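Dear colleagues,

As part of the handover before I leave the project, I'm documenting each prediction I ran so the next person doesn't have to rerun anything. This entry is a single chain, and its sequence is reproduced below.
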Amino acid sequence: MMTPRSEEELAAMIVAARGPLAVQGGGTRGFAGAGDELSSAGLSGIDLYEPGALTLVARAGTPVAEIEAALAGENQRLAFEPMDHRALLGTTGQPTIGGVMAANVSGPRRIAVGAARDFALGVRFVDGSGRIVKNGGRVMKNVTGYDLVKLMCGSFGTLGVLSEVAMKVLPKPETQASLVIGTADVGQAVAALARGLGSPFEVTGAAFLPDRGAVVRIEGFEASVSYRLGALHAVLGGFGDIERLDAEASQSLWQSVRDVQRFAERAGDVWRISVKPSDAPSVVAALPEGAEYLLDWGGGLIWVLCAERTDLRAGIAPFAGHATLVRADAQTRAQLGVFQPEAPALGALTNGVRARFDPRGLLNARRTLAA
């Protein structure tokens, strides 16, 4: 494995490459591309942290745990709540901030604060020609031409290898609590989640666990959380019996939702489906017999555990969204493809962008761009 220790060394390795490079951060997401492994894990360290400005700059290989520890010391956090894939995928290593941004890894709080890409202020990366590129900065601003910050977030290393990321961080709330609405019906659950999200009570999590019920989360100052939770209880009372979870129980449940712990160490393939929340009940109804699922993002994100080598896309088509094969053996990935096939017009645009940044086709050659 190639593990450069500086941006210049990274650029030299890409220039010298004579074949495909499999780009990865900590190797925890299981999306290895073709070719020689190139890891950004050696580019590690927090270069700048200004708590008063809510700004942090870190090299791409910096472990997420190191960043979270530094933020916790100032009572701040990564508000987009990045998932830890290790339990679900059975991988080891340390998730890195570069890997999080390259895959746009965003957790349950996305419905309230946005995705990982919405917190990226600037990036430095090395493209497929070995050029060192910088875009953005330490403040949010509009730029002309390519918005490379947004483009790199979700590119899965196909356009360049991230070397540095500048991010916006947010204060950590004083407490949290959740309500669990006791319903087993997916249609009723999605309606309850929509009602909660449409309320003025600032819901920061909205999930459905079929064996538990629909769950909504409130965060903030203790007095505010108590008031808003009571008001939300009144709004959602018509959907079923309601259980209240205190801060500790709420945090544990949402970490489980974030990391899809229910499917960890379970046999079968795991899919991640993004749809309009209102379409979730019909997509669930089309799932193959025996499949298990849970909903996040108010129904906009569906995690599915199903029998190995199941072509889930064919089974639930047509639907407006995309299905990503998150966990499966190499043969199934090769046969079905990890990412949703692109429409011809979008595929042409994707190929044009990739040719601009990686004209030799070196970087994660078998991947496609994904949202």
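Residues 261-336 form a domain with the Alpha-Beta Plaits fold (CATH 3.30.70). The chain has a mean pLDDT of 93.

All the best with the project,
I.
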